[in-house]
Structure formats: C-alpha cells, structure tokens
Amino acid sequence: xxxxxxxxxxxxxxxxxxxxxxxxxxxxxxxxxxxxxxxxxxxxxxxxxxxxxxxxxxxxxxxxxxxxxxxxxxxxxxxxxxxxxxxxxxxxxxxxxxxxxxxxxxxxxxxxxxxxxxxxxxxxxxxxxxxxxxxxxxxxxxxxxxxxxxxxxxxxxxxxxxxxxxxxxxxxxxxxxxxxxxxxxxxxxxxxxxxxxxxxxxxxxxxxxxxxxxxxxxxxxxxxxxxxxxxxxxxxxxxxxxxxxxxxxxxxxxxxxxxxxxxxxxxxxxxxxxxxxxxxx
Length: 281
Ligand code: SAM
Fold this sequence. Notes:
- Its EC number is 2.1.1.266.
- InterPro entries: RlmJ, SAM-dependent_MTases_sf.
- This is Ribosomal RNA large subunit methyltransferase J.
- It catalyses: adenosine(2030) in 23S rRNA + S-adenosyl-L-methionine = N(6)-methyladenosine(2030) in 23S rRNA + S-adenosyl-L-homocysteine + H(+).
- The protein is an alpha/beta fold.
- The protein has one domain: Vaccinia Virus protein VP39 (Rossmann fold), CATH 3.40.50.
- The protein contains eleven helices and ten strands.
- It has helices spanning 12-28, 52-57, 64-69, 72-75, 81-92, 99-106, 120-129, 143-149, 171-185, 200-213, 248-263; strands at residues 35-39, 46-48, 95-97, 112-116, 136-139, 157-162, 190-197, 217-224, 236-242, 270-277.
- Strand 6 (157-162), helix 9 and strand 7 (190-197) form a beta-alpha-beta unit.
- Helix 1 (12-28) packs parallel to helix 6.
- The radius of gyration is 17 Å and the shape is globular.
- The mean pLDDT is 96.
- The protein binds S-adenosylmethionine.
- Residues 1, 3, 5, 14, 17, 41-43, 98-99, 116-119, 122, 142-144, 163-165 line the site of S-adenosylmethionine.
C-alpha cells in the first residue's frame, strides 16, 4: 500500500467530496431516527498541512486554502455552511479534517460512525483519533470486506462512503463486487463512490458499472477544474451516489456553481450532474 492521503489532504477534490458529504448526511438527519455512516476507506482522519507530506505537494493550496482566501460571500453559501464550520477552525490551526472526522462532527447523539482503514500507520492514527469515543468504531479491516460483513446496520438508515485510492487496476472490480454484496444486504442505504477524473475510459467503465447495479435512482456528480488532458493528469473529481436524497442533484449543482470560480484553473472549471433511474425490466 503506497498511497497516503496526507499528500493530498485538503486538495480541490477533498473540498468538493467533503462539501457534498455534509449535504448527504444532513439530509439523512432530517428524520429523528438514528443513522449509521460507514467510511470504508477512511484515512487517518486528521492531517497536518504544515507537515512534510502536505508541504511537498502543496495540493491544499488550490483546495481548502483557496476557499479560505475566497470572498466571504462564497463561504456563506448555506449549502457550504456545515462544511466550512467544520474545516475552518482546523484550517486556522494548519490542519485538515478527513472524511471520518467530518462525519463525526456531523453526528447527533443517536448516530454512529464505522470507519475502516487498512494502512497500518493511518489505521493506528485513526484509532488514536477516536479512542474513547463511543459513537465511532475505527476498524483496521479491508473496507470492501466490511461492505459484505457489516451491513445492514441496526439503524436502518445511513450512508456508505467508498473512497479508495485507485492505485490498483482491480479497484473498479472491488467496488462493483463490494457494492453488489452491500446492496443485496442493504438495498435502501445511500452509497457514495468517489472517483478521480484522469482517464476518460476508466471513468466511463466505472459509471457504466455503477449505473447498472443501482437499484433505483443514482446521481453522478463530476467536477472538472480544467479540461481533460491528453497526459491523463488529475483534472477532476467525481461522486456517484446510489439512492441519493431527492434534493441532492440540485444541492450539488448549487455547491459546484459556488465552488467553480474558487477551485477552477483560470476560469476553466465545468461540472456535470447526471441523474439516472433504473427501472425493473
Ligand atoms: N476518505 C478519506 C477522506 O476523504 O478524508 C480519504 C481516503 S484515501 C483517498 C484512501 C484510503 O484508503 C487510504 O488511507 C488507504 O490507506 C486506504 N485503503 C486502501 N485500500 C483499503 C482497503 N481495502 N480497505 C480500507 N482502507 C483502504
């Protein structure tokens, strides 16, 4: 396992992913009943932006630092409010919270989080971060296995974030196999699969597979901070959501309209939101 999210924390893709994550959780919390969040590829949970890894790439500069430097009206967008409230104090202390910590900050008393991380050091950091917190289970387990073994939750409603590093060619197959099991056990859960936009063929393969296994509605959100590039560099970020809240496509459009001028390169940002519905044959 070579991938370490510490090199990428707070980059433009994290800002988009985590802002959308906040909206998904908030919608599920509109009802009083408890929810469970599963974060299958959680990372260590908190990143030091002054540390060597973040400083080496400085990816956060065109992500969270750009948002922090943007006009206050942008951060006042009501759909960004939860996200900004969580990340702002951390950013002021040169830190960036990862998805499990953002999810934790959103939990109500009745909600629970299960976070999986396989890298030994990042998994140990995740466990330390949540030590003694009864609302969170930090587990050193393959997140794809958890999709088959730990679903459905007793809470009945909730969200599964699947955010693999995409460092292996098998990951699309792992996602599809994991989601097939997960949907068989918990059809009504909301599932959000993050993906990088670099190689159009890989993106198309993933979208086609996810659309085919979605039992009902799905929303695919794609944000490009610059046009696709022949050298297949990392130009965009996607989130494919199965069983989305009915407001999600509109909220995602509002968030991306707000973020595009902040995260885009030279006014070149574009986004696309595609809603699909599979009907039983
Ligand atoms: N979700 C995090 C966030 O948004 O802050 C970032 C996660 S990072 C993109 C992917 C993480 O998955 C890495 O920390 C990596 O060590 C971990 N990982 C890779 N394969 C895994 C697996 N099969 N099960 C659990 N974690 C895995």
